[in-house]
Design goal:
The chain has two domains: 230 residues, TIM Barrel, CATH 3.20.20.60; 29 residues, no CATH class. An eight-stranded parallel beta barrel has the order 1-2-3-4-5-6-7-8, surrounded by seven helices. Helix 5 packs across helix 6. With 272 residues, the protein is α/β, with parallel strands linked by helices. The protein contains eleven helices and eight strands. Helix 2 links the parallel strand 1 and strand 2. The protein is globular. Bound molecules: 3-methyl-2-oxobutanoic acid (KIV). The site of 3-methyl-2-oxobutanoic acid has 11 residues, from strand 6.
């Protein structure tokens, strides 16, 4: 097996190189300084400041309520923490749809105020003009096709996308359009693995999957899900690498017990 090239700093060009060399791209979400620092130090390739912050940080049911200002707050904290990885920030719902001028302004605001390296937008042909305009301004764009949670009320469910021929045709055409528009990568969410693999072969830019099987160029997961902080979300595609909810619960229970039974603090933990 070919040894992976060691990158000291990840750029959009490194990701393209990884695809060409067959090195898989690892991406995770993060929303704050402390976790971003740990994840970057573990050598993640991309941190996505996802609008999933709306769910896992703010407790909203969907990704729709989070604002541009809130996304910038999270992105700023992440950017301060990282040395190596590429930081991509989601344009939140309402900050780009149906208005390419607004899309450009939102992207520039994110880049200027957070110091992030790229933005991500959900959708295909509907937002092609916005994507072109943002890229023309010098801001790298990551696309997002398949299950697009910002459109949940249009589709009504979070089920697997692109199972019918019409939708399959559209997603393939959209991937080609996003590539032509200049996107440096595309996230494919919750679509059949065979189709995702086909799309990864159809385009030259990296395809990052979530619930899209192993035939793509990289994977992304929501950090709170894969670390087992969030126990309420259990889709088939999710692999849990830790059970932090249990570890945190046990630690907090021990602390409460120690305080109540007066064993914390002890003599070594106080000042003379
Ligand atoms: O917001 C997010 O976390 C995302 C990932 C699920 C790709 O868009």
């Amino acid at each position: 097996m070919k040894e992976n090239k060691k990158y000291t700093k990840i750029t959009t060009h490194s990701l393209q190189e990884m695809k060409i060399n067959g090195e898989k791209i690892a991406m995770l979400t993060a929303y704050d300084y402390s976790f971003a620092k740990l994840i970057d130090q573990a050598n993640i390739d991309i941190i996505l400041v996802g609008d999933s912050a709306s769910n896992v940080m703010a407790g909203h049911e969907t990704t729709l309520p989070i604002t541009l200002e809130e996304m910038i707050y999270h992105a700023k904290s992440v950017v301060k923490a990282i040395n190596r990885c590429l930081v991509v920030v989601d344009l939140p719902f309402g900050s780009y749809q149906g208005n390419s001028k607004k899309a450009l302004e939102s992207s520039i605001k994110i880049m200027k105020e957070s110091g992030a390296h790229a933005v991500k937008l959900e959708g295909g042909s509907e937002i092609e003009d916005s994507i072109k305009r943002i890229i023309d301004s010098g801001v790298p764009v990551m696309g997002h096709l398949g299950l697009t949670p910002q459109s949940i009320y249009k589709f009504g469910t979070y089920t697997v996308r692109a199972k019918k021929s019409e939708e399959i045709k559209k997603i393939k055409a959209d991937a080609k359009k996003l590539e032509k528009a200049g996107c440096f990568a595309i996230v494919l969410e919750k679509i059949p693995a065979k189709l995702a693999e086909e799309i990864a072969k159809l385009v030259k830019i990296p395809i990052i999957g979530i619930g899209a099987g192993s035939g793509v160029d990289g994977q992304v997961l929501v950090m709170h899900d894969m670390l087992g902080i969030n126990r309420d979300f259990n889709p088939r595609f999710l692999r849990r690498y830790s059970n932090l909810a249990e570890i945190i619960n046990e630690s907090v229970s021990k602390y409460i017990n120690d305080v109540k039974n007066k064993s914390f603090p002890n003599k070594n933990e106080e000042y003379n």
